[in-house]
Amino acid sequence: MKKRSKLSIFIFLFLLVSVVFPIFNMLLKIDWSDDSFQKLITSTAFKNALFNSLFVTSIATVISVSLSFFLAYTLNRTNIKHRSILKLLISLPMLIPSISHGLGLINLFGVNGIVTHFFNFNIIGSTGIILGSIIYSFPVAFLIIDDGYFYMDNNIYNAAEVLGMNKWQTFKTVTLCYLKKPLLSAFFAIFTMIFTDYGVPLAVGGKYLTLPVFLYKEVIGLLDYSKGTMIGLFLLIPALISFLFDTFFKNYGNVDGNQKYVVKENKIRDIVATIIVYLIIGFVIVLLGSFIYYAFVNNVMLDKSFSLTHWEYVSSNNLSQYVFNSIFISIMVAIVGTIIGYFSAYVTARIKGKLSKFLHLLTICTLAVPGIVLGLSYTISFNESFIYNTFVILIMVNIVHFIATPYLMAYNALLKVNQNYEVVAKTCNIPMYKIIIDVIIPCTKKTIREMMVYLFVNSMVTISAVTFLFNSKTMPLSLLINNYEGNMMLGEAAVISLIILVINAFVKIIIYVINRKEDRRKVKYEFNEEAI
Amino acid sequence: MVSLKVENLSKTYGKKTVLNNISFEVKDGEFLSILGPSGCGKTTLLKMIIGIEKPTSGEIIKNGKKITKFDSSKRKMGIVFQNYALFPNMTVLNNVSYALQLKLKNKKRAREESIKILKMVNMEEHLNKYPSELSGGQMQRVAVARTLALKPDIILFDEPMSALDADNRLVLRKELKKIQKQFNTTMIYITHDQEEAFSLSDRVMVMREGNIEQLDKPNTIFNHPKNEYVKQFVTNHLIEKVRSIERCTGIDL
Predict the structure, then answer these.
(1) A44-307 falls under which CATH superfamily?
(2) What is the pTM of this model?
(3) ipTM of predicted complex
């Protein structure tokens, strides 16, 4: 058998064991025999949780997507300065767990919050969940819409001008046509993200129960896996719709952003936009800054002096062990996940065939499984296997949870690499592995770096997929926030959030510097150039 | 000695027939152009000769040996693509010597030989440049040199000049012809450009919808087209050219 088909089969087997088996196994283990499903969906607790979830998610999604659209518009269609730094700052919230966003809100607006001192404000409940979810999700929506702007064919704007269209007509017929898919895509993605997240509501929801928290409490508190799975089914629905939409909805934007859009002069527009963008980013920075305040102040209520008590407490409680766990898991996920994602993409983008198409669908369908549901399926399916209670299961669940996005990065990059290299290699008698190592990997090294960072950062911040799977020896850092926050140790929780933020920012900065250096060295060869 | 023989070659995708039972021979050292509009099956034919696509039926025979089931690497053929397929992260010299080095297992000799061939294609001044620093014509020269370096029995060209401007094409055409004479390599050249096919080839094969319409010397095809299609496809284009010259110069040709 050829090496390349061996590769496809290996990847197929991996997905079979890590995705198909746990999900189906979980679904098959639901106990339908009695009327427990009937009982569940007619219970007041469930109805309330479902209503609450739909309520907060809808509001937060609309605000989050509108906000992101505004940000993307500002950064692409006004003369705002320092775009690349602003983009980096906008993505800051992605570097901390969702639960930390809730925590930040409590720091600011909680009963003893910094802002609450001046204004009477009650953040606990639906308001907090909505606000926290917006902060947690808008960077993702921003990236999707910003990408939409990047892939627009800007020549059409020139054409529209020549045809004498006014601004509103141009916006309606050109901009919205191109942004339809990214906007709807962002809408579905953000809805799913907020609907299935339990970090924010756990931290700031108080008694306001949402569906994922309901699931979490059923499984963690009452160990009722069957009921947990039934609730999980409801979490799967929006994710599934989002996935189907993304896979089958036609996208108009397919042009590489070569043609630069010329922004017209408009001082008032620029000033207003700049002020609003700075206010939004300012709020994010204040939220993150609250961690620094809480982490270094002895007691926010009684003694506001500088102190390292929280750091000392945290470090005397096995901090190094948890830091090691998190970094170890994240590095392993980054390496193994990138290898699997890259080679899956190699198979699907460069070796055509039925198996390739199937592998493509199978890999991206992991997008449709919320982390908490995936984690639950792993607990149910692997609790008797040798990998349970080890790092292996944590690494595996994170890889599956996050693989779709880096896979798509690699897929798009590999499609752009000249499709004839393999034929040249064959006729020149160059072994396939040599051409992959010597040509194809160097051509896509920037993408590979980005895949690794994505996997690393997300593994550092995730709590949903790993929450049912860790033990005292393998517990990652992010879950400590939950523990401390639950015990109202806000200073300690802030310390952990800060550590995660610093590690992730450090990794991001390293990659940023490497990429910049490479660009500046004026590398003589340019990849993805159509002519090559 | 017959260099390459194609016997009753067919290719179907489901119900669609792309190549319909075609047979022809290419003689040793011959330059054969395969001419036809897009969708006539010429690229599929090329892919089967090089070995990256399997025929539905029929045989490909090289020097008396059936090679239909051989892997591309065993066929001793080279290919030059329209988009060059140069390795962007390697210099001109490395692009040419990379495969040779693996073959000879001798870096120094591989480099020496590569330089020799790059000289022949007038690229000796650009040895340390990267592909992105070259013009289209220069890139195509490197691609030809890379293929020549391995001394294949047959070189196939897949519309190699479609991406070049008219001046460059003319220069490169002449050079290609020179190289072919120098190396006496059998060349099979795919194109939809009548002029290119006629000026380069010993023989031209006109294809339509998976069939060979005519295979003859350029002269014969031009003067005695076998059917209306060949006449239309081949001569109309040239007549158009003559007419445009007439229009420009006012001289009745």
Answers:
(1) MetI-like (1.10.3720.10)
(2) 0.86
(3) 0.84
